[in-house]
Amino acid sequence: MTWLKRIFGSAGRPAASAVPLPSEPRNDLDPPPRPPKPWPPKPWPPKPAGAVTPPMPPDPVAERPKQRRISVGKAPQNDIVIEKDGISRTHMYLIIPGEDGADAKLIDTYSEGGIYVRRQGIFARVKGNANVALDDTIRLGQIETTVQALLDGRASGLDIFISYAREDEPFAKDLERTLRQHGWRLWRDDRLAIGRSFDEEIEARLTAARCVVVLWSAHSVKSQWVRAEASVALDRRVLVPVFIEKIEPPLIFRQIQGCFLTESDAEALAAQRRVLIEKLERMIGPPKA
Predict the structure, then answer these.
(1) Could you read off the pLDDT of 180-218 as tens digits, one per residue?
(2) CA 153 from centre of chain
(3) DSSP strand pairing (137-140 vs 143-146)
(4) Is the whole-model pTM more than 0.70?
(5) 234-260 pLDDT, tens digit each
(6) Strands 122-125, 80-81: pairing kind
(7) CA dist., res. 27 & res. 20, Å (int)
(8) Which domains does the chain have, with CATH numbers?
C-alpha cells in the first residue's frame, strides 16, 4: 500500500507535490526553447575605407604539377620498350615530374637486374624509389644511360620505325629487308603484339625508336595515321622523310630534307639506298654488333 499512498496520499486523493517516478518524464530537465533566428540575417559590416582583403592561401593540390607514369621494360605493352638482356618484362616505372622539385622519380618493380643510380661516381641500387635529375646516369640490367636518353628512346633496342600507307606495303617490306641486312633493328606495324590495342602498340614503338623513316607517296600524304606518326617523329627530331614517289609532302614537313627512292633503274635505286643508309648512320650511328 505504500506505493498507493505515494500516489494518492493518505486520504485517497492525488498528492499535491508527488515526486515523479524515475520512469516518468522530468519537465524541469528539458532545455528551454531557443528563440527563432532573425531573417534575413544581418549583413556583414562594411569594410573600412582603404582596407585590403588578404589573398587566399594557395591550394597545394591545385598547384601540384600533373604527373605521368611511364613504364619501362621488355614487354611490348610498356611505354618504353627495351629489348635487351637483363631487362625484365616491366623493369621499372618513371614518374615525370618527381617529388620535392626533382625532374623524375624511379620506381623499381623488384626486377632481377635492378635499377642503379650513379652518385659520386658509384652506382647504388634503388630500393623502392628514388628522385633523379634528367642528366643523372642510371643502369638498367647491363644498360648504362641517362634519364633523358631513356625518354628520348636512345636506350631502346629499336633503331628504326617505318611509317607507310597500306598501299605501299610491298615497298616498305623491301626497304625493311635492306635495312635489316645492314644490321639495324626495325619495326613496322605487321608485328603487333597479341592482346594489345593497335594505337597503344604503335605509340610505344614510335616513342622508343631512335629514328622514324616515313615513306611519302600519293597514298601516305592522305593517311591520317602516317601524318600523326610523322608529327610525333618531327617533335622528337628523329624524322627521316623518304620519297618513294615524286610528290609534295604535307606543308609542315617540307622544311625537312629527305631522301629519294624513286628510280626505276636497279643501279640508280641502289645508289639512292646508299644515300639513305649514310643519312641514317649520321643520325643514329652504324648498327651495333
Answers:
(1) 888 888 888 765 544 455 677 788 788 878 899 999 999
(2) 14
(3) antiparallel
(4) no
(5) 998 999 999 999 999 999 999 898 999
(6) unpaired
(7) 10
(8) 66-152 (2.60.200.20), 160-284 (3.40.50.10140)
